[in-house]
Amino acid sequence: MTELRVAVVGAGGRMGRMLVRAVAEERGCSLVGAVDRPESGTVGQDAGLLAGTPELGLAVTADPEVAFARAEAILDFTAPAATVAYARLTAERGLIHVVGTTGLGPGELAALREASARARVVQSGNMSLGVNLLAALVRKAAAALGPEWDIEIVEMHHRHKVDAPSGTALLLGEAAAAGREVALHERSVRGRDGHTGARRAGDIGFASLRGGTVIGEHAVVFAGAGERIELGHRAEDRALFARGAVAAALWARDRSPGLYGMADVLGLADV
Ligand code: NAD
């Protein structure tokens, strides 16, 4: 099969640089475009040199039309408004759109769903095998343990992260809610402060810690009467998410337009 032609948006960002490197290192694909905002200070620079690989002869551009001209797949770890704008372009062109951007609200998720009528969209708050397997285990544990077990999700990330709870914490919350057959938005409690009253049975709580250089740590705590179970994951290298995104793009090549998750890519949907 010919190499998958990939463009990276947000190519100057922490994840963008990882994505450029992952594409350069993966034999099944080649980088044909790199985009970032003029404010990023990276436009005009060689995408490879920025990412710490040998020079690729491909400059970062501020114009997605230029970067997408030859692309079959877009890797997008940027910001919610940018992701919605790119979804319009990927739908128009029937491209693969791998979305790692977190902090997407209901309107932004609806825009991705709309785009998926024509684009192959793979969206996940976490592209790692470990976290997606953890989500499957959390769903099973929540179903097995019943509502008398309190569920709390604790996450920690580096000081630059702008959204909370993390996309991964929400993904794990959705898994717990699915196991209990409830809607997360009706049961979730985001942080506590002051006189909160006693904990409501059946709630799913979230706590977010921010600091230092932590790449991503998550623990799902099931607290019962006199005992506690903790299921957790620690990301040790951002390259993990980038490799997952590249694997998602390659997987999506043979699919029909639609909205997919990493559980589909990793074959965990029925676990
Ligand atoms: P970052 O701030 O380092 O990088 C974001 C990049 O996007 C910047 O270079 C910025 O200039 C660029 N950008 C923003 N708007 C743009 C636009 N309109 N057009 C082009 N580029 C634009 O942030 P980061 O740490 O790389 O994280 C990016 C996103 O990825 C966040 O939402 C983060 O939570 C998410 N993330 C997801 C996973 C996952 O596995 N799903 C893993 C890590 C991070």
Structure description:
The chain has helices at 14-25, 47-51, 64-68, 80-93, 106-115, 129-145, 167-180, 184-187, 239-252, 262-265; strands at 4-9, 29-35, 73-76, 96-99, 120-123, 150-157, 188-190, 204-210, 217-223, 228-234, 258-260. It is elongated, with a radius of gyration of 19 Å. The model has no long low-confidence stretch (mean pLDDT 96). The strands form two sheets. Strands 2-1-3-4-5-11 form a six-stranded parallel β-sheet, with helices on both faces. The protein has 271 residues and is of the alpha/beta class. Residues 9-10, 12-16, 35-37, 40, 77-79, 82, 100-103, 124-127, 167, 241 line the site of nicotinamide-adenine-dinucleotide.
Give a quick precis of the structure.
The chain is of the alpha/beta class and 271 residues long.
Can you lay out the helices and strands and say which pair or pack?
Elements: E1 4-9, H1 14-25, E2 29-35, H2 47-51, H3 64-68, E3 73-76, H4 80-93, E4 96-99, H5 106-115, E5 120-123, H6 129-145, E6 150-157, H7 167-180, H8 184-187, E7 188-190, E8 204-210, E9 217-223, E10 228-234, H9 239-252, E11 258-260, H10 262-265
Parallel strand pairs: 1-2, 1-3, 3-4, 4-5, 5-11, 6-8, 7-8
Antiparallel strand pairs: 6-9, 9-10
Helix pairs in contact: 1-9, 4-5, 6-7
The structure holds nicotinamide-adenine-dinucleotide.
Name the features.
271 residues; 5-stranded mixed β-sheet; 10 helices; alpha/beta; elongated; binds nicotinamide-adenine-dinucleotide; 11 strands
Strand content: 15-25%
What binds here, in terms of ligands, is:
nicotinamide-adenine-dinucleotide
Quote the average pLDDT: 96
**What is the tally of helical segments?**
10
Give the CA-CA distance, first to last residue.
30 Å
Q: What radius of gyration results from the CA coordinates?
A: 19 Å
